[in-house]
From TrEMBL:
Keywords: Aminotransferase, Transferase. The keyword Cell division does not apply. GO terms for molecular function: succinyldiaminopimelate transaminase activity. Transmembrane segments: none annotated. This is N-succinyldiaminopimelate aminotransferase. Residues 32-386 form the Aminotransferase class I/classII large domain. It is an enzyme of class 2 (transferase).
């Protein structure tokens, strides 16, 4: 067996199952789960219809590079969304089976574990999406975690990373809007990251799967390719990853893309040819329809806006929480309750049948602290009424602690 598998940690939801083992929640309250970030809004009819109309594609093997119409639809969307002058559909876009799969396999393509006497480094935000860590470890690299700072809108302090670490870095994962904090990288953040990449030669992978869930139609989150263009540079050593899962409520399609540096995508396509993760022709056809339509995406955002503007003030009375920049999570500090994040999650589940995810499960101990400790992640993915009821129970739970 691959010995590197032994370095992998249990996934956060496995830790949650262990935390809840032996706990029987109140039977008189229907379960409400804010734990998993799985979109629950209805899949738009135009996408469902497109899947049905493309069922003949089941009789064909899919092309790893995706169909030309799909690559063009993605290139057009990327160009329009980020105000880019041009995106080459043939060389700068690659459809993938969801951003999660691509985030993992990209590291296997990029990392050269034999290039230095010391193991290469993959720099990750902390808290973070655990795929980054697993991808680094199984590529033979060492993850290095850069803690987020609540005082800086949960931005990572990349200036604190020693030069010796940057010298060994081959890949930097960023997530904007962030999971779990919802923070969006600014243009100045990107300027700093590009300067570091230019100096040390590492690749930047920008995970932007939450980019289309935001609260002000006039100010969509800044993307990595957009930042590169605004700063007058090309896509060298930069790729961005996006997905239809959250944008279009189709997590079961596992449809996304990678765009950016053509030289990286050429090698990534070679890897994927052997990896065998081509997107079904049926889902490729439906993805074209999804990427070409924005009306359903605006409707989706309106649903999230209603939930966040209703629920956030309710919870702010009992927890330290505020509206995030984007994405569909609330990142709430539970310190004022006197409970740890794991105690809070366990007791809330037992007493009110509401599931939230302890923040410490989404982070690692690094530089003397776990930056997720004391926080919980609340995924507002259910319908409005269920989210409001869940928030009401959390408020009641917190107030019961103060009595």
């Amino acid at each position: 067996m691959n010995p590197l598998l032994q370095k992998l940690q249990p996934y956060p939801f496995e830790k949650l199952r262990v935390l809840f083992k032996g706990v029987t929640p109140r039977a008189d309250l229907a379960p409400i789960s804010f734990g998993i970030g799985e979109p629950k809004h209805a899949t738009p009819a135009l996408i469902r219809d497109a899947v049905i109309n493309a069922m003949s594609g089941l009789a064909s093997y899919p092309a790893t590079a995706g169909s030309e119409p799909l690559r063009q639809a993605i290139a057009d969307w990327t160009r329009q969304r980020y105000a880019l002058p041009a995106v080459n559909a043939a060389t700068e876009v690659l459809p993938v089976s969801g951003s999660r799969e691509a985030l993992f396999s990209l590291a296997q393509t990029v990392i050269d574990s034999r290039s230095t006497s010391e193991p290469p480094v993959v720099v990750c935000p902390n808290p973070f999406y655990q795929i980054y860590e697993g991808a680094a470890l199984l590529a033979g690299a060492e993850p290095y975690f850069v803690n987020s700072n609540p005082a800086r809108n949960f931005a990572c302090d990349y200036a604190s990373v020693p030069d010796a670490i940057w010298a060994r870095t081959q890949l930097l994962y960023v997530c904007s809007p962030g999971n779990p904090t919802g923070a969006v990288l600014t243009l100045e953040d990107w300027r700093e990251l590009f300067a570091l990449s230019d100096r040390h030669g590492f690749v930047i992978a920008s995970d932007e799967c939450y980019s289309e869930i935001y609260f002000d139609e006039a100010t969509p989150p800044l993307g990595g390719l957009e930042a590169a263009h605004k700063l007058g540079r090309g896509f060298g050593r930069l790729v961005m990853l996006s997905s239809l899962s959250k944008r279009s409520n189709v997590p079961g399609m596992r449809s996304g893309f990678v765009a950016g540096d053509a030289s990286i995508l050429k090698q990534f396509l070679l890897y994927r040819t052997y990896h065998g993760a081509a997107l079904s022709p049926m889902f490729q056809a439906a993805s074209i329809v999804a990427w070409k339509d924005e009306a359903h995406v605006r409707d989706n955002r309106a649903l999230y806006l209603k939930k966040f503007t209703t629920v956030t003030p309710m919870l702010a009375d009992v927890l330290d929480v505020r509206l995030p920049d984007a994405a569909f999570y609330l990142w709430a500090n539970v310190a004022r309750t006197g409970l740890t994040d794991t105690e809070f999650a366990a007791r809330l589940y037992a007493d009110y049948n509401v599931t939230v995810l302890p923040g410490s499960y989404l982070a690692r101990d690094a530089h003397g602290t776990n930056p997720g400790s004391g926080f919980i992640r609340i995924a507002l993915v259910a319908d409005v009424d269920e989210c409001v009821e869940g928030a009401r129970r959390i408020v009641e739970f917190c107030r019961s602690l103060a009595q």
